[in-house]
Amino acid sequence: MKTIMVHGVPDTPQMWQPLIAALGQDISGTITVPALPGFTGPIPTGFDGSKEAYVNWLIGLMEEAGEPVDLVGHDWGALLVIRAATLRPDLVRSWAVANALPERNYKWHRTARIWQTPLLGELAMAVTSRSSLAKGLEQAGMPHDLAQHETRHWTPSMRKSILRLYRSARNIADEWTRDLNKLPERGLVFWGDDDPFVPVETAERFCEKTGVPLYRNANTGHWSVVEKAPEFASLLKSHWGV
User: Fold this and answer.
1) Distance CA 13, CA 40 (A)
2) Number of structural domains in the chain
3) Is 80 exceeded by the pLDDT of residue 28?
4) How many angstroms separate the CA atoms of 60 and 72, rounded?
5) 59: CB partners within 8 A, 6+ apart
6) What is the pTM for the complete model shown?
7) How far is CA 24 from the centre of its chain?
8) Quick check: is 216 in a domain?
């Protein structure tokens, strides 16, 4: 069993540590937690930062695994997992995502719309300090130490990568919902009911359309996989059959 966990925005692979700890040592050795290109280091040469480039990057990791993998994604990682799984279901043993989905009726949240707007997005990035970002992450339910770690990577490279990614995704609700019938059946959706960025109704509509089970968490926000790490770990173990 090989597992790839894909983080979102504005995160790094460190966000998975509470979940990995909850899964235990017997499983942690099978897990890969790659960093989205440009998020913890320089943007790779020739990498255009579009949503398609990130999907191709993920599919490359799946091919390198040498066997069908278990995919886990949060936020943008969830969107990439769903897209990669629809394009290459042959490489997927199972998938599980949290707090983001390609869904036809979803409208981008306010911050996303700002980032998607030329000049306004650059201005927003310039005035967002590490301290203000860390405060926002903590208010959203992220532990203090983890929030501090994540914001250390709030660099020009990450900020530029985020702008490129979001600007390539204005029409994702249409472009990435056409092939959902190809999504592997062995999947699940995990959600925080109080997510301020992607409302739970988005998950309800997606799961009703696809027949995928939805696991909701009351009094939980966008970083459900951190806030409810033990609960998600238990669910994943059952999902994986371990």
Assistant:
1) 9
2) 1
3) no
4) 16
5) 84, 87, 88, 91
6) 0.97
7) 22
8) yes
Q: Is 211 exposed, middle or buried (0-12, 13-18, 19+ CB in 10 A)?
A: exposed
User: What is the identity of the amino acid at 158?
Assistant: M
Close Cβ partners of 117 (under 8 Å, ≥ 6 residues apart): none
Instruction: For residue 24, tell me if it sits in a domain.
Output: yes
pLDDT digits (tens, 9 = 90+) for 99-157: 999 999 999 999 999 999 999 999 999 999 999 999 999 888 888 999 999 999 999 99
- Report which residue type is found at 80: L
C-alpha closest to that of 125 among 157, 172, 77: 157
Residue with tokens 């995160």: 11
- What is the separation, in whole angstroms, between the first and last Cα of the chain? 10
Helix ranges restricted to H, 188-242 = 200-210, 224-227, 229-240
Distance set, CA 33 to CA 3, 9, 12 (Å): 9, 15, 9
In one-letter notation, the amino acid at residue 55 is V
The tokens describing 13, both together, are 């692979």
- Cα torsion through 47, 225, 231, 101, rounded to 10: -70
Domain enclosing residue 94, as ranges = 3-107+172-240
Task: Examine the pLDDT at 94 and tell me if it is beyond 90.
Answer: yes
How far apart CA 234 and CA 242 sit, in angstroms, is: 10
Establish if 138 belongs to a structural domain. no
